[in-house]
Amino acid sequence: MATRFVLIQPSHAGNVGAAARALKVMGFDDLVLVQPRWDDVLERDETVERASGAVDVLRKARAVDTLEEALDGMTHVCATVMTPRDFGPPTYTPREHLGPVAAQGHGVAFLFGSERYGMRNEDVYRCHAALRIPVSPDYGSLNLAAAIQVIAYEWRIALGGFGAPSVAAAPVADAAAVAGMLRHWEEALVAIGFLDPAAPKKLMPRLNQMFNRAQPTTEEIHILRGVAKAMAEAAKKAKP
């Protein structure tokens, strides 16, 4: 899913580098700066040093003159704010808002204001939602790069995280295969004397429910039928 992090008028080169590092750690690499303090901020020594190896994100990053340019192609825009704005978009915590957004498949842009004065009202108003990171009421000051790290983390979790490499699941056996296996087991259980066909009670329905919950694969059905076959053959050999 297209994801972009937009820094509006960043004033500290170190924060730009730290932002690149925060994005790379979470697997994102689309960073756009709107009217940065220095034209060469992406190449400054402090920026590169604070990026700490995320120079590929810096090389891909770009600076633009307007927020309109920065948001090109994005369909859902989130502001980051400390306090809700009158007449602004609804305010959410990242966790409560980002899950539903991820499910909708939007191209999402996250906006961060200047370190000196935050986001301007006019920039907040154009957003679909405002995100407020829950912080201590006694000290709510977050460094720009730290805020980016939190939002990037929450968005990565909403997208499903990284996790272990996915392994294709074995196909679950269909209802007919389960029913056939249960008939085979019923015959075997009768053969070994575990099931009395004259008074079966609820054994087979309970086994049916158990296997439905277990959702055995086709291969597991073959194994279970092999067990039933072995039970029946052992019972046959045991007869005088």
TrEMBL record:
GO molecular function annotation: methyltransferase activity
Residue intervals of the tRNA/rRNA methyltransferase SpoU type domain: 4-153
InterPro entries: Alpha/beta_knot_MTases, RNA_MeTrfase_TrmJ/LasT, SpoU_MeTrfase, tRNA_m1G_MTases_N
Catalytic reaction equation(s): cytidine(32) in tRNA + S-adenosyl-L-methionine = 2'-O-methylcytidine(32) in tRNA + S-adenosyl-L-homocysteine + H(+); uridine(32) in tRNA + S-adenosyl-L-methionine = 2'-O-methyluridine(32) in tRNA + S-adenosyl-L-homocysteine + H(+)
Enzyme kind, highest EC tier: transferase
Keyword Cytoplasm listed: yes
Gene3D superfamilies the UniProt entry points to: 1.10.8.590, 3.40.1280.10
One GO BP: methylation
Pfam families: SpoU_methylase
EC number: 2.1.1.200
Keywords: Cytoplasm, Methyltransferase, S-adenosyl-L-methionine, Transferase, tRNA processing
Compartments where located: Cytoplasm
Domain of life: Bacteria
Family to which this protein belongs: Belongs to the class IV-like SAM-binding methyltransferase superfamily. RNA methyltransferase TrmH family.
Subunit comment: Homodimer.
PANTHER family: TRNA (CYTIDINE_URIDINE-2'-O-)-METHYLTRANSFERASE TRMJ, TRNA/RRNA METHYLTRANSFERASE
Entry function: Catalyzes the formation of 2'O-methylated cytidine (Cm32) or 2'O-methylated uridine (Um32) at position 32 in tRNA.
UniProt-listed NCBIfam families: rRNA_methyl_1
Full protein name: tRNA (cytidine/uridine-2'-O-)-methyltransferase TrmJ
Native source species: Ramlibacter pallidus
Taxon lineage: Bacteria, Pseudomonadati, Pseudomonadota, Betaproteobacteria, Burkholderiales
